[in-house]
Design a protein that fits this description.
Two copies of one chain form a homodimer.
Chain A: E1 43-49, H1 55-65, E2 71-77, E3 81-83, E4 89-91, E5 94-95, E6 102-107, H2 113-116, H3 120-131, E7 133-138, H4 142-147, H5 164-169, E8 182-185, E9 188-191, H6 196-209, H7 211-220
Parallel strand pairs in A: 1-2, 1-6, 2-5, 6-7, 7-9
Antiparallel strand pairs in A: 3-4, 8-9
Helix pairs in contact in A: 1-6, 6-7
Keywords (chains A, B): Signal
Protein name (chains A, B): DJ-1/PfpI family protein
Pfam family, one (chains A, B): DJ-1_PfpI
């Protein structure tokens, strides 16, 4: 039986010019399955979004990973509609009321992480979701959300260089890398600020499919790829 | 009086994993005003989105323009929910049932433009919308949508280099630039493929606010800016 639900509110044409805030729909979780958002056989990229996420942190990697053979990208969020720091809104494909099997959990950063690091419910979801994620890829201050858990303890990691002091102060048990465009340690790929995520995403393509495939996507997107993780023009210290 | 409308359909949690297609809401246009989506006094960026737009064509410029002082970015589309080629969906802030005064009309490209070049209704909207746009900025094959009108006639322009032959074949009256990361001619800023839009957006910041401001945003986003419009590594011919 087909079930229909409604995303409520948010007239996009209100004469006031006001944009309705992200709204809570009356969502039944009874229809969820463990792989809910994904098509069978795809490389499953699940990207966490939240209000005031940084646009390019998410969409740079989405661009590159989305050109990988057989990839499928879905957004997971606390609400159905999420507003980026730059304004445009995205629609979640599934909610953090559940966790999902996936191949890559992508976590962007942004000013929204400043309050989210104190969100106990999200932290609990993250720990459970990470356990069901083959790999985890953070961009920018997305790393801060991991730093609030113990998953990075003992693992080399990096983050946005302008926010380096803040993020690294959140967890003393992480050997923070002050000079790195990105770092892969175990199942965790962490990258530096904003655009570094796009470079790290192409690295991930190379890691999975080889250099030729990464170069194909680089050419397709006319991208100037910084393919050296140690070439970090924004390094601190 | 507050009016509420509903974005219908699209359960984000259907057990089938199926994502509902973009849906038409019962939208009343009576509440529209000429500046509907924007806050008074902002630098108004209106970005056209359509199904199968290319993610980074839109979100690269959104990232950079969104950090400009006083900018406001709104999405305009034919439907309330639009799906990118890479999968994630965005929410339109207003519809192409009307045109809007804006400072910058941003038009991304993507595989969706291949059919849209034959969409007479969209073409008519574009011509009317361009007349109400202080400047127009196309990325990648977004230029193809302009090429179907006469607005670029006699103006230097460029586009994605892998699609150069197709786009340039659409209009013989445009002096197409085979080697250019971006071109500004009159009110039209056209850029090369995908990532070139991000470079061109930073150029636009510089054009409006000076080099220091562009460099500030470049640093903030840890971006490797190709700031020379003649440095086109993907040039053809």
């Amino acid at each position: 039986m087909q079930r229909r639900q409604f995303i409520k509110g948010a007239s996009v044409l209100m004469a006031t010019g006001a944009i309705a805030p992200a709204v809570q729909a009356a969502v039944s979780t009874s229809s969820l399955t463990t792989n809910a958002p994904f098509t069978e056989g795809k490389y499953r990229v699940l990207a966490l979004v939240f209000d005031d996420y940084e646009t390019l942190d998410l969409h740079g990697p989405v661009e590159m990973l989305g050109h990988m053979p057989n990839s499928e990208i879905k957004l997971v969020a606390m609400t159905e509609i999420v507003k980026s720091y730059q304004g445009p809104r995205v629609v979640a494909d599934c909610l953090t009321t559940e966790t999902y099997d996936c191949d890559l959990l992508l976590i962007p950063g942004g000013i929204g992480t400043r309050s989210l690091v104190n969100d106990t419910k999200l932290r609990q979801w993250l720990v459970a979701q990470i356990a069901r994620s083959q790999n985890v890829f953070t961009v920018c201050t997305g790393t801060a959300l991991l730093a609030m858990t113990s998953v990075l303890n003992g693992r080399k990691a990096t983050t946005n260089k302008m926010a380096f002091q803040w993020v690294s102060s959140l967890n003393d048990n992480v050997p923070w890398q002050a000079k790195a465009r990105w770092v892969l340690d175990g199942k965790f790929l962490t990258s530096s600020g904003v655009s570094a995520g796009t470079d790290a995403a192409l690295f991930w393509v190379k890691h999975l499919h080889g250099e030729l495939e990464a170069k194909r996507i680089q050419t397709l997107t006319e991208y100037d790829w910084n393919d050296d993780p140690l070439n970090d023009p924004y390094a601190v210290g």
